[in-house]
Design goal:
Elements lengths: L6 E5 L4 E6 L10 H16 L5 E6 L10 H8 L3 H19 L5 E5 L2 E3 L1 H8 L2 E5 L3 E3 L13 H8 L1 H10 L3 E2 H7 L4 E3 L4 H13 L3 H14 L6 H16 L1 H11 L12
Parallel strand pairs: 2-3, 3-4, 4-6, 5-7, 6-9
Antiparallel strand pairs: 1-2, 7-8
Length: 266
């Protein structure tokens, strides 16, 4: 396993990977090194066939304050081509997270500013504290949420993304849930207990079926039907039915027993 300076990557025996933003002293603000390490960690998760799903979390009091101020200062001194290369690295991070084969769940506490909303939007699901504070703050400093914008629109919808990107106003967990950025929000004191309930639900499911379902929904996109999409869906259900986990799940259901991917009951 790799040694990281700005992040931590943990694996459990039951197939949960947790990717931690680990610059708590900097409110988990990301810089070039963190972006590079996050890309490396996502490759590590993708290569591990035992991973069932991944959590994305922030150490300390905050999920992430967005871009690191020193990093932004350095970027301001670069020419156009250097800035373009820098932006491409961040765009690759967002794409790699969004396209990760296993399901992803972001857990948000404290502040989530700027590019942090991109990370949240790239995850399949997100939960957070009611007290968490969200802000697309880029326009306040003369910038724009460029490479994260497609993922913001997918997560929040076009109207909400326009409002919060143009006003740079802060909003909290309940509003984040209302616009779709969060699936659910809870009082901060209850967030960890509620996370355990999410983990329990995900661990009930076939790992391969979850991967296949994520791939299916990425192909389906907005659901506009075409002949090629219809053929894809037909092949997808045929493949999963004859797969080992598909066979095990169907047989377990018919035989009224737990499937093999569930741990034995104590």
């Amino acid at each position: 396993m790799s040694d990281y300076q700005t992040i931590e990557l943990e694996f459990t025996d039951n197939g949960i990977a947790t990717l931690w933003l680990a610059r708590a002293d900097k409110n988990n603000a990301f810089n070039a090194l963190m972006i590079s390490e996050l890309l490396q960690a996502l490759d590590e998760v993708a290569a591990d066939e035992t991973v069932r799903f991944m959590l994305l979390r922030g150490r300390g009091n905050h999920f992430s304050a967005g871009a690191d101020l020193e990093w932004m200062r350095d970027c301001a001194a670069l020419d156009y081509n250097a800035n373009l290369n820098d932006a491409r690295e961040l765009a690759q991070l967002m794409a790699s997270l969004a396209q990760l084969k296993v399901p992803t769940l972001a857990v948000v506490q404290g502040a989530a500013f700027g590019g942090a909303l991109g990370l949240i939007s790239c995850c399949d699901m997100a939960i957070g504290a009611e007290e968490a504070t969200f802000c697309l703050s880029e326009v306040r400093i003369g910038l724009l949420p460029a490479v994260i914008s497609p993922y913001l629109v997918q997560a929040m919808g076009a109207r909400a993304a326009r409002r919060f990107a143009l006003t740079a106003e802060r909003f909290h967990g309940e509003r984040a849930r209302e616009v779709g950025l969060l699936a659910e929000c809870y009082p901060a004191a209850e967030l960890e207990d509620e996370l355990l309930q999410w983990l329990d639900r995900l661990l009930q499911n076939s790992p391969q079926a979850m991967r296949a379902t994520k791939a299916l929904l990425q192909e389906v996109k907005q659901g506009e039907m075409s002949t090629s999409l219809r053929r894809y869906t037909e092949a997808a259900i045929a493949r999963i039915r004859v797969s080992p986990e598909g066979q095990e799940g169907l047989n377990a259901f018919l035989q009224k027993r737990d499937p093999a991917w569930l741990p034995p009951k104590p």
